[in-house]
Inverse folding.
């Protein structure tokens, strides 16, 4: 079955004409049609073509801001899944990020953008949207072809089953036998639910398949799994439609989604990874901290959040330039990783700020010992620069039990460490069980 390739276009939304011109020039490398809109209303009008595969949008605009435009897009079925990257001069506070991702963004970039990073993300997102549209088009075509004759069924690339009202397989085409790793004779007469992974359905009579068959409706599952003869999981998109009433059966069409889901996995990794250092970014860190809080609530084991800010980094940027600054950040990332256990979580959440989540400690002194190591490693001799580190420590649950409380406590302790002379750590106010903060 042929899926027609579609040349997706890019929409840039910004109320500043010079910003639109700069973005249009940068995006020429992608060899895509680029549309520009200087307001939210014009942006929504551009979306009606159905050809926009990526939106790069400013947040602060007169009238309808970027968040409002994103929400309108997500409410429209034709633009609901179009990827949006917010590009803004706003400081990426938790509130701004939460609003952006809640509105439907897949990423958030701060002006001025890193050209290579933006172009890479744009390519991946355009490819992802192409796969999504291709899958939708394929599903629609599969629905139209369910009445074709046996020769078409035998030669199509999609897996096809004909299942009777008793839940047993009557016909299996070659594609589905290859997918499941068995012969047609093994499939014929077997129960459909033996090949479909489901945590809830134990019998055919209780299955959603029979429910839809009896109602005469088509069932579509874009995130389903089949199970082959060896018990291995195969990610698929499934569509199941009743045949004519007198045939007392239905067709089940299966499209292998392994490559699409792998692309989605890579995209998800990209959205939580800092491109410069390879560490978690702010979004990935917030997810990791929320998970650590949930584990603490289950186990009761103490954890600690360390908030690290580099001392002397601004001077490196000012004196030697951003390339040397980037080199310093990558070096620091390696120094920090060398102090941590494999399961500790290290993130660069912006600029020269790093966070570390340490779980399963016995007392705050364990966190202090790690902080000592981090400060020593960041302060180690390097031929090109000299750096230090100030660290704030907040323990879970004594310093807080939410992301906001822990971040506020650790950030405040870090600024106290800087105020006290830098190159040291401080615990959050009210922290008990530590002999003393150390400089």
């Amino acid at each position: 079955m042929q899926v027609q390739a579609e040349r997706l276009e890019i929409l840039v939304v910004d109320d500043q004409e010079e910003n639109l011109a700069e973005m249009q020039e940068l995006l020429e490398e992608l060899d895509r049609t680029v549309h520009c809109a200087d307001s939210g209303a014009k942006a929504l009008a551009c979306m009606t073509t159905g050809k926009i595969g990526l939106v790069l949008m400013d947040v602060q605009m007169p009238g309808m801001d970027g968040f409002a435009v994103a929400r309108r897009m997500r409410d429209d079925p034709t633009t609901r899944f179009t990827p949006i990257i917010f590009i803004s001069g706003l400081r990426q506070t938790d509130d701004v990020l939460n609003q952006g991702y809640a509105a439907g963004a897949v990423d958030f970039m701060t002006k001025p953008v890193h050209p290579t990073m933006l172009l890479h993300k744009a390519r991946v997102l355009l490819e992802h949207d192409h796969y999504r549209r291709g899958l939708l088009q394929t599903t629609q075509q599969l629905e139209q072809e369910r009445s074709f004759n046996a020769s078409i069924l035998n030669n199509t690339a999609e897996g096809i089953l004909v299942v009777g009202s008793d839940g047993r397989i009557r016909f299996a085409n070659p594609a589905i036998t290859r997918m499941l790793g068995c012969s047609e004779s093994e499939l014929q007469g077997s129960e459909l639910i033996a090949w479909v992974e489901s945590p809830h359905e134990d019998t055919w009579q209780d299955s959603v398949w029979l429910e839809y068959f009896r109602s005469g409706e088509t069932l579509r599952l874009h995130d389903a799994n089949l199970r082959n003869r060896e018990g291995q999981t195969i990610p698929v998109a499934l569509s199941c439609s009743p045949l004519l009433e007198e045939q007392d059966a239905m067709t089940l069409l299966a499209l292998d989604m392994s490559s699409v889901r792998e692309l989605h996995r890579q995209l998800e990794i990209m959205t939580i990874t800092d491109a410069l250092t390879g560490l978690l970014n702010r979004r990935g860190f917030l997810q990791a901290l929320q998970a650590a809080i949930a584990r603490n609530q289950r186990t009761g084991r103490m954890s600690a959040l360390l908030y690290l800010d580099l001392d002397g980094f601004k001077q490196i940027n000012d004196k030697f330039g951003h390339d040397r600054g980037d080199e310093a950040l990558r070096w620091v990332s390696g120094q920090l990783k060398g102090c941590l256990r494999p399961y500790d979580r290290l993130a660069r959440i912006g600029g020269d700020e790093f966070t570390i989540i340490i779980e399963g400690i016995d007392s705050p002194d364990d966190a202090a010992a790690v902080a000592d190591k981090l400060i020593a490693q960041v302060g180690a001799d390097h031929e090109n620069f000299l750096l230090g580190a100030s660290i704030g420590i907040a323990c879970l649950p004594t310093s807080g039990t939410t992301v906001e409380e822990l971040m506020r406590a650790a950030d405040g302790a870090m600024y106290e460490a800087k105020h006290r002379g830098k190159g040291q750590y401080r615990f959050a106010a009210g922290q008990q069980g530590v002999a003393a903060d150390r400089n």
